[in-house]
Amino acid sequence: PSSHSEAMAALAAKKKEWTACLATSGGHPGRCEKVEKELASMSKSSGIDCCITETVALMQCTNSGAKAAGCGAEFLAMRECNRSGGKELSREAGGGYAVAPGKA
To answer: How far apart are CA 16 and CA 10, in angstroms?
Structure first.
């Protein structure tokens, strides 16, 4: 049990480090690639989604011409990934959204 809690603490610390890096990256997540890769590895091995893909996609959208369209899909993906109880909506192939399995 202590090794599990230590792993969770290490993951939380790495996510905090990545978040701090992103905050000073000027909107360029690539500047934090080393920490991002370390976090991704830790996230994968622990089975906990740290929303890395969603975070980077939202940052890239808001720093591009796509921002004019509002980045709605990216924002929604980020919001759903960060829900404490897990995703409540899932993207469908046609571009719409459906209630996630087990959330109805």
So the answer is: 10
